[in-house]
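Researcher: First entry.
Model:
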Amino acid sequence: MHALPQDHTGTRIARLRRERHLTQTALADLSGVPYSTLAKVEQGAAPATPYVIGACARAMRVEVSTIQGQPYAEELRADELDVLIRPIREALDVYDLGADPDIRSRSITALTAEADQLCAAVRAGEIKAAASRVPSLIEETTTAAHLAQVDEGWLTLASLYRTAYDVAAKLGYPDLAQLSLARMDWAAQRGSNAVLGGMFQYLRALTYLREGRYAIGTRLVNLGLATLGQAEESRERQVVTGQLHLGAAVVAGRARDEDAAKSHLREAERIAGQTGEAGKVHWLAFGPTNVVVHRVSVLAELDEYGRAVEEARDAVIPKDWPNSRTSHHYAEVARACLWTGRLEPAFENLVKARKAAPQQAKYHPTVRETYAGLEAAHRRLPESFLSYGSWLGPVAPH
């Protein structure tokens, strides 16, 4: 028995539409999604793209996560990940209380090393390990930063808030992700680091990208670039600037602004030519490889799925590239393959996404949406297709 068709994204859109007493024609008019596309998505005959999901969410005034069915509560509970969310929330609440007299903190240097290890864990796809460790480290570093009152302490705390953001975003908790970013900005300002301030705007833009609010995402990217202009010239500044251009390219692509998207890609490519692979600079994985991967993403956002598949075919992913980025890339390639009718390659890329970072892939909306699209295609796929669906688990009604 297949796992996902009973409550796929299309059925949620239809349910939310009916709750608001909207016809398909009315929702198509409000969202700007063609009627034929909306009808196919609701029927499960076509997978919902991020653009369609974002447009419908805006039109019906709900969060994207509501349409996607996130968080995937049953699966999180089965993997014992749900119990890790509340401690993160509690750790984020004590930011302004000063030093905790009950905590004996280690040196800032030791805490910085641990914060860096957590960034590496997230990039390796070890979400559970990062989620387990980050609350206590935030609390300890909060005390250490308030006691030391030095830039390094605040910037280490900002790094841990960034890890909390990564965990929340990957597990489908947008409200917690936004709170984590607010705390990151608070700490970065105390650490007086313009580069980190620019990166904060980049991550903030990504949250609006996920919610389908592209105009705000573009404004935040521009604010981030302006903030970076205040930093001294360095490779670190170049890397974050390049990553901002990559983020801007995806935002523009999803907003159907092809000229802006390709302009940002060209600028990122120029910067990457100067920096080379800079994967460990703020763990952004910036460099020529990320430019190629983002070009695939942008083409897919522009509905140029055939070209996206061709670009992906020529892409060479280094073995030491972050597992999380590798998994995300294969998920996007799988989606592009599905839309061009390449069903077997689509499933092969889903398998690659799972192999690279299983914890991330399991909770990745693109993975689940693509699997549901393959399910709806009613074509013969390998026996392992069924076991993949069992691994994902059923999407619970939201």
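Researcher: Second entry.
Model:
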Amino acid sequence: MRRGLSEAQGEHAQLNALSDLVGRLSPLPSVVRYYDDFANETRSIKWEGIGDVAVQLDGTSIRLEPWKLGPAELLMHHVMSDWFSRLDPHSVVINTERLVHFGSRNIGALYELILSAPYEARSVWVSKILPTVTASQSWAVRAMLHSLCRLNIGQWSPQAVSIVKGLKSPKVDKYRVVRVGDCFLPLDQQALIVNHIDSLCEKLTVDPESLDNDELRDVCMLVMSYQYAFRPGQIARIELADVRLFPTGAVHVAVSIIKQKDNSKRIRTTRKVKREWGPLFNELVRRRETGSLRPEEGVPARLLFVLTPGGVSTAIMELTEELTGEAWSPTDLRHTAAQRLADGGISHAGLTEFMGQTSDRIASVYFDKSPAQAQRINEALAISPIYSNIAKIAKTKTIDKAMLLGLPPDQQIGGVPHGVPIAGIGGCGLGQSLCTKNPVMACYTCSRFMPLGEPEIHEEVLENLRPVVVEFASASRNNEQSPAYAQLKATMDAVRRVVEELKSDRTQERHS
């Protein structure tokens, strides 16, 4: 009973001390302004008592709830004002949400930290904050303490900044998803994405009107995400004026490097769209300029894709799910693009620049994940998986010998790639005379391929092509950036997958 009374008295004293601290705060600025780069507008927030704080950002209205911190709400308004004056508004939103979430579960510890003297902060942090805080929430709490120091609130002052920096966060591996490999698209699914982009280019060449607006817009966003590893916010912020179309067919797109803490480091970079995919962007720009593709509500008309960052992310995930059976996010595509380059032998500096980072520490994660040179040849020989995650075998339409022989000669696949005669591996739904790719070498990664349902035939292809891979590896000194070597590697992996699937189907038939 006495213990309960003592705790109640302690809480009462803490609330009184906090109320006294809040009562001595200087007046808030009547209006806080921040720049919304998505809308290209300077927006204002008026502190109007208790309640939600509305922040207009990225085409949406975000409701922040500092009132959930109780008597510390006014103090939080001061902290948010300081954040808006120094940080990107996205960081302000994220910090506020994390801080409020932590405070709603452990408000007493947060009050005690605010009221404590800097020399006592470490003890409070270790005993009452660390046991219940997540790593991301701890970053927000420390950001609040930095603001208290800047604003000279309570016993906090600029001299205490070093103490705040010394407060440790829970250990977390920010790149665990890369180390585990779950974020990487299997090669067969990457092939499906490339095939889709290629097929829409062909469709556009035959009849531009056969592509509806959403289909055209989504495939162009997929190109920017898959080929160049851009984030949804970057893709959504691309303006019509950022796209340069040349008479030669070349397409250049300028993109801002966002997600940098220092606004002065937010430079712009230009990427050259793959020449074969350029017509898609030419047609998209034409439709935007003629007004046939209109922006969704809340999205400025100057933007190319006329979607919010959230809309970009949703569209890409829906499209990848339609193509591969799994919803891959733009972040997954970004990691996959980086790993492709690391596996291909790009330098640390090159990968850092490609990712739009200022430190090569992040690039190092992909190089750590990248297999050794000897493993690369082994993988190119289709003896082991390309990435650490075993890719799921693609569900492919197979045919038997009678069906193959019944196809028109043009749809029966055959060729002599790299001097190796190969025939009878399956059929083509399009016809070799209409295919713009290299027969046999491109067939195994093509969605129109109908493999013969006999694994022995495809195992023979593997054995015949393995000496060619070794020859190319030796001639190019294992340079995976060589187009021929990269195609061989992808083809061998795809053949192996077909063999595994056919053998699996045969085993299931025996047991059924």
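Model: Note on the second entry: The longest strand covers residues 422-428.
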